[in-house]
Amino acid sequence: MQRQARQWRRDGVAVGLVPTMGYLHAGHLSLVARARRSVGARGKVVVSLYVNPTQFGPGEDLSRYPRDLSRDRTLCREAGVDALFLPTDAAMYPGREQGDYSTFVVEEALSQGMEGVSRPTHFRGVTTIVATLFNVVLQEVA
Predict the structure, then answer these.
(1) Which of 58, 60, 91, 114 has the lowest CB atom count within 10 Å?
(2) Helix 69-78 crosses helix 26-39 at what angle (to 10 degrees)?
(3) Which of these, 49, 87, 76, 79, lies nearest to 65 by C-alpha position?
(4) Other residues' Cβ atoms within 10 Å of the Cβ of residue 58
(5) Considering just the CA atoms, what is the radius of gyration of the chain in Å?
């Protein structure tokens, strides 16, 4: 994905990213439409589908998160998405399976209230993966 993103950047093509955990719905598709309006007909819209394991805390069932890749692909195709980015855990968190991953993006103020109270590692997972996606896709709009 990053190789393609760099080529688009060299070619002066605007890129919009809609980061998701998949199992797309009307809200996601409205973001795709908004990204398309922002980048224009010549621009590229990328949708990432990644169920981020670090957003799930102890006792939260990552394996039960709904997934339907075939349906998501169809919805993206119908919505005019230019690229579907399907990163793996190994690509997003290299070395994590071996206990060698320790780099996270931590937000220390906003994440202390609301959902952060009951899910203390959730926002660390969100901020880390969004920062990683931004560094791979190199979008102008998200």
Answers:
(1) 58
(2) 40
(3) 49
(4) 7
(5) 16
Is 25 an active-site residue?
no
Report the side by side order of strands in the sheet with 44-49.
Answer: 15-20, 44-49, 83-85
Answer for the pair 69, 49: CB distance below 8 angstroms, yes or no.
Answer: yes
CATH architecture for the domain at 2-137: 3-Layer(aba) Sandwich (3.40)
Q: Among residues 28, 44, 122, 124, which one is catalytic?
A: 28
Pick from 87, 71, 68: which is nearest to 137 by CA? Answer: 87
pLDDT of residue 115: 82
Q: Each residue of 110-128: b (16+ CB within 10 Å) or e? A: ebeeeebeebebbbbbbbb
Q: What is the pTM of this model?
A: 0.93
Residue 17's beta-bridge partner residues? Answer: 46
Task: Determine the 3-state secondary structure of 113 from DSSP.
Answer: coil
Closest CA to 49 of 72, 29, 75, 66: 72
- Can you list the residues of the chain whose pLDDT is less than 50? none
pLDDT tens per residue, range 129-140: 999 999 999 999
